[in-house]
Task: inverse folding
């Protein structure tokens, strides 16, 4: 330290900081400042007889001056220099022992190893060295400046931990920041920039024609109130990038929406196809032209753009009239029926391939979950260097040089290390995602938004039975819906809640980013959450896809062609729909469970099996044959035919005709007045009146004599007699009332009234 002070005294200044700045060594941290110092001391005759030894310890002297707050080098210089290092140790000795000790305590209590936590503490010490003060004086602005300077000092691709934001999470976990401070540094990241204005959506593609650029901005702003942000960005990409920017690229100087037939035809051809480059076995690159799957959507968007301008030109000619032009895309260019049929066939084939594999996938992910948990438990009970075997896999607990809260095991044959905590975590969440998706049929976006508040209950007013329900948050159709929780699903959800909740029983609140609306949601107790470093983050949609794909890859399942089978989260939704409808669920009930606005969408999810119609028809025939005796399937004899014809002759009754089927007996013991198969003859109306009067008199006699049982039976017959009498009156009324159908008479037909 004395040598450093002697060197600084050679430069002018009222303080040690001013003298340090006068040396100009703090401008470039990659240049070794010790070389200039030794040269200056040698020129002044102040250099010790052992300059090599002095150079080795100069960093220690500079650290003492920084720790005592006599010098404050810049953040960039401190991050880039190779000397001094380990500033946190000096800060713990002389500047803020309690603050650094608190950070180290949080390091030992966290789930992150020393290789990540020690650099994080060192970054916080750099902020204290450059800004002065104690740990509690570090602000959010200091953290943001540190991340910015880190990107400037080390631009381009660097080591994965170079720009790690763990230091911010460490500060936030110690409670040094205010309560309203963003809990994650990702909220400051430009990756999660949030919603941007319409002007930026258009200007990011650098449209050359300014009037067309202004038109696109006005059009998108006009559409914005009626659509969500995801649709708005998709609309901007299609109209600006795929349509107008493509036209400017192939037709420089274009400035009008009125396209010639050749220009429109060329653009439609480009949008319908794309070039795929592949490398053959001999290393040669080949190009293949294939159809673009999104071509129909792009054509539809552009056609709607032209039609909207034409319609708006009628309402506001001054604003939209100059841009109204004939639409270059005809209705016949958009083959919705063909596209839908192809998509339906493709999705049905995926469902047919994956539905039989689903039980094997469920068994595989459950087995992997239990095996990963068993390996982790065995590793925790083992000593470093000890081997253990779980589910046929033999591992050896690794010997660690540094402290790490992770549990590492090595494969004895290859010495490859495996993070057993991460393996168990991935296996569990893959199993949870597969189980919830297959038993509910919800979208993957809805899965990522399930929270502890989604578990509700309903008590039936009649029986008082308690029914657990799962509330699905609004997503694609912007409508909530409720699903009944089955016992199997209840087990899965309870396992998830038990895993993520705090020791006090509460579920941690996490902040999730809505990738569709580009906004940060308020803290909510999401079910699908996991610890990343010192932060508890929600599992994003992309993370769920990766978990399911990795779990499927570990199973080794293949499709009909022998290739590895892939499962997307939406495949579970189609499988759920197909399985539910095939097992008797009415389609309109399935529509409510899936949250579809149109039942045709629900039926589109249901896969069509060629053998389904055949098996259904054959089963129908088998049921009919099972109900009829086998001897009926032959030519009837003369006696049988006469008996069949005589049946209809014997159906004549006093009050009308009996409508019972052939071969059946009377089921009402000839109490024809009560029988619904009796067709009353209107001519027998008086007979029905006599029967009604007789029944009335007999009921009065039964009530007078106390024959209550007979009176009840007679009342049933009386009600039937009145009903039959009403039927006879209605039949007579229809006979006397004529209805004019408006049919012309023969003399008024067209053929007889036409004159030459």
Result:
């Amino acid at each position: 330290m004395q040598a450093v002070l002697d060197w600084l005294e050679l430069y002018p200044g009222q303080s040690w900081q001013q003298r340090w700045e006068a040396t100009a060594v703090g401008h470039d941290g990659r240049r070794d400042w010790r070389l200039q110092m030794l040269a200056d001391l040698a020129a002044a005759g102040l250099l010790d007889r052992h300059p090599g030894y002095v150079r080795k310890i100069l960093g220690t002297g500079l650290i003492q001056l920084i720790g005592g707050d006599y010098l404050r080098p810049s953040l960039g210089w401190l991050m880039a220099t190779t000397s001094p290092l380990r500033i946190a140790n000096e800060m713990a000795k002389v500047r803020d022992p309690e603050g650094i000790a608190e950070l180290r305590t949080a390091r030992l209590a966290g789930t992150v190893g020393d290789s990540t936590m020690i650099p994080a503490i060192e970054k916080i010490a750099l902020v204290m060295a450059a800004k002065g003060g104690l740990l509690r004086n570090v602000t959010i602005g200091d953290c943001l400046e540190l991340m910015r300077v880190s990107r400037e000092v080390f631009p381009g691709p660097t080591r994965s931990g170079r720009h790690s934001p763990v230091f911010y999470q460490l500060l936030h976990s110690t409670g040094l920041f205010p309560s309203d401070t963003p809990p994650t540094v990702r909220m400051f990241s430009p990756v999660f920039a949030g919603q941007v204005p319409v002007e930026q959506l258009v200007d990011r593609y650098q449209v050359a024609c300014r009037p067309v650029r202004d038109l696109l901005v006005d059009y998108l702003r006009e559409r914005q109130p009626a659509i969500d942000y995801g649709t708005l960005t998709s609309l901007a990409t299609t109209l600006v990038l795929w349509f107008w920017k493509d036209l400017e690229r192939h037709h420089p100087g274009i400035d009008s929406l009125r396209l010639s037939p050749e220009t429109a035809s060329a653009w439609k051809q480009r949008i319908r196809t794309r070039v795929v480059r592949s490398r053959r076995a001999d290393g040669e690159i080949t190009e293949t032209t294939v159809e673009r799957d999104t071509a129909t959507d792009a054509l539809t968007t552009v056609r709607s753009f032209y039609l909207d301008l034409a319609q708006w030109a009628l309402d506001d000619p001054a604003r939209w009239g100059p841009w109204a032009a004939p639409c270059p895309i005809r209705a016949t260019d958009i083959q919705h029926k063909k596209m839908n049929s192809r998509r339906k066939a493709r999705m049905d084939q995926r469902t047919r391939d994956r539905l039989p594999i689903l039980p094997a996938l469920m068994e595989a992910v459950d087995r992997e979950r239990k095996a990963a948990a068993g390996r982790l438990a065995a590793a925790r009970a083992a000593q470093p260097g000890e081997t253990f075997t779980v589910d046929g896999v033999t591992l050896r607990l690794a010997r660690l040089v540094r402290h790490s809260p992770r549990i590492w095991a090595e494969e004895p044959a290859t010495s490859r290390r495996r993070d057993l905590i991460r393996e168990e975590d991935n296996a569990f969440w893959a199993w949870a995602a597969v189980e919830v998706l297959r038993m509910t049929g919800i979208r993957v976006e809805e899965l990522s938004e399930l929270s502890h508040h989604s578990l509700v209950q309903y008590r039936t007013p009649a029986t008082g039975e308690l029914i657990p329900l799962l509330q699905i948050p609004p997503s694609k159709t912007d409508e909530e819906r409720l699903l009944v929780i089955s016992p199997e699903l209840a087990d899965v959800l309870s396992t998830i809640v038990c895993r993520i909740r705090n020791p006090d029983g509460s579920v941690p609140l996490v902040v999730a980013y809505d990738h569709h609306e580009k906004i940060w949601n308020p803290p909510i107790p999401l079910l699908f959450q996991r610890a990343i470093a010192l932060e508890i983050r929600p599992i994003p949609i992309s993370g769920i896809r990766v978990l399911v794909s990795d779990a499927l890859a570990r199973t080794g399942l293949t499709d009909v062609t022998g290739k590895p089978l892939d499962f997307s989260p939406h495949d579970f939704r189609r499988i759920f729909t197909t399985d539910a409808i095939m097992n008797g669920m009415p389609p309109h009930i399935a529509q409510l469970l899936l949250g579809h606005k149109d039942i045709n969408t629900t039926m589109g999810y249901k896969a069509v099996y060629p053998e389904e119609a055949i098996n259904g028809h054959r089963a129908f025939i088998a049921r009919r044959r099972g109900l009829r005796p086998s001897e009926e399937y032959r030519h009837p004899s003369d006696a049988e035919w006469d008996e069949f014809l005589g049946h209809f002759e014997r159906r004549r009754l006093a009050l009308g005709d009996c409508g019972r089927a052939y071969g059946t007996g009377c089921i009402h013991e000839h109490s024809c007045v009560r029988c619904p198969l009796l067709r009353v003859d209107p001519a027998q109306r008086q007979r029905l009146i006599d029967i009604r009067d007789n029944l009335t008199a007999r009921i009065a006699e039964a009530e007078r004599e106390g024959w209550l049982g007979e009176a009840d039976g007679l009342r049933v017959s009386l009600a039937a007699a009145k009903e039959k009498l009403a039927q006879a009156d209605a039949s007579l009324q229809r006979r006397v009332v004529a209805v004019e159908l408006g049919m012309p008479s023969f003399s008024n037909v067209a053929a007889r009234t036409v004159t030459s």
Remarks:
- The CA atoms of residues 152 and 499 lie 41 Å apart.
- The radius of gyration is 42 Å.
